[in-house]
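Could you join me in thinking about how sequence relates to backbone shape in a protein? Would you write everything just below, so we can both look at the same thing?
***
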Amino acid sequence: MIPASLQGSMKRAYNQKVLLCYQTLFAYDLGKGEAASVSRILHHMKQLAYFCRQLLQRRLLNWTKPLRDSLLLGTIRDLSQGKAELLAENALLRQQLIILRRQIKRPACTTADRLLLVLLARAVRTWRQALLIVQPETLLRWHRQAFRVWWKRRSKATSTTPKISPEVIALIRELAENNRLWGAERIRGELLKLDIRVCKRTIQKYMRHARITRPRGQTWETFLRNHAKDVWACDFLQVTDLFFRSLFAFFIIELTSRRVIHVGVTRFPTDAWTAQQLREATPYGQTPKYLIRDNDSRFGPCFSRVAATSSIKILKTPYHVPRANAICERFLGSVRRECLDHMLIIHEKQLHCILNAYVAYFNRARPHQGIQQQTPEPCVPSLSFHYEREKIIAVPILGGLHHNYQRGA
């Protein structure tokens, strides 16, 4: 930008030249018409010169003004400024960043922006205090990522051709696929017996394509399948009656057959009441080896004491993991969808009668996909061989909500 003092001197010099032109022209003996035309010409020349001067000044400002997005030109401009001016400009920019930070929570940074911020932070001692749009931990994470990329490219193999033969690679994959219990070191020992020397890391590289990584130990699904005949599960189902009062139904179910062992209903499910339900469900020593339950406070010391007296080992499910008690949870969903969602519950005894009727239907007549469409309590097959002549009878359940179809005599 042109200083004000320089602009004033330029204006004065211009005015002196115009005045000299007037004096020279009027020194001649000219007529009135010629003097008027000359004055108009001079007026137009003055306007043209003023326009040219403004245009030149704007062009000069555009040429000397650095680009906003150019870091190099901005740095060159800062080198020509004084310290006081730089401090004021930094304060102005910092205040604008503070204002923008209030509105933009997560600014988008490109890869070039991240690399440039990392490089500039290395040159500033107080880089943690200078960061405004990102956290210092974010900048350190970007640095670690850049180092990983650099080291990966540096340590990349110059040749992609395997150093071992395709036959050895196929043999490694065959050993890994056929022997699931063998690790890389065990396969390396087997290859040494065949006089094939391959390092452990190479074996691990080719094992990934032939073996799916599986968690060590026994999964919960495998445990339930192996011990289903000795495992029971129990849980509560909360029901709201017609007057918006809470009722609680307690169920015990056998996992191997999906048979409901016991059902109880109460308005106040205490620890003593729950322990009494367990006593009624295990008469004459008919007890399971394991009992799955959740972490409800209703399963208190009395319940644990009754289970220990009956030699039942309690298995607590983890928090917020309903799949750990999946069979019982699925049964509770069936109770709601197939029974309670279609009934108006008035009192406790009515709910107990409805649930007893549904449990009888569930155990004796309802097929289950988990046990190959069989019923929990297998029915006695008919001895008659004339199925075509027998009449099929529909027995209504729960007032016709469900039906049990049987062959008549």
Remarks:
- The chain has four domains: 4-64, 109-152, 166-207, 221-379.
- The chain has a mean pLDDT of 80.
